[in-house]
Amino acid sequence: QVQLVESGGGLVQPGGSLRLSCAASGSIFSRYAMGWYRQAPGKQREMVATITSGRITMYADSVKGRFTISRDNTKNTVYLQMNGLKVEDTAVYYCSARRTGTVVWTYWGQGTQVTVSS
Q: How many CA atoms does the CB half-sphere of 32 hold within 13 Å?
């Protein structure tokens, strides 16, 4: 079992920055791929960024060049640095974990709201 707790969301103006954190507990963090997903009102949940246990990263086209995912295995934490935020980035952001070697994102946090507005 893995427990995930997100933090760092909030209200920011367009062009601003936020850093989301996701603290994991309950299992060996380094054995999991980690991901950030988001869901805007009336839309389906979508992948934002993922990072494998080997630190291979993947990004949605909409955030490439603006967002950076990273992980600190000594702190059991994954981060999402978000720069150049746009109104369309407004959503609830969820942290997720997938055991290496599997394909299903099994574990999810409770989500943190990010609102980009002037």
A: 28
The band of 101, judged by pLDDT with boundaries at 50, 70 and 90, is confident
**Going along 28-111, which residue ranges are E strands?**
32-39, 46-51, 57-59, 67-72, 77-82, 91-99, 107-108
Q: Which residue has the tokens 């054995």?
A: 31
Q: Which residues, 6 or more positions from 61, have their beta carbon under 8 angstroms from its beta carbon?
A: none
Whole-number CA gyration radius for the chain: 13
What percent of the chain lies above the pLDDT cut of 70? 100
- Residues ≥6 apart with Cβ < 8 Å to 37: 45, 46, 47, 48, 93, 94, 96, 105
- In the three-class reduction of DSSP (H, G, I as helix; E, B as strand; rest coil), residue 100 is classed as coil
Which tens digit of pLDDT belongs to each residue from 25-66?
988 888 999 999 999 999 999 999 999 999 999 999 999 999
Return d(Cα 7, Cα 110) in angstroms, integer. 10
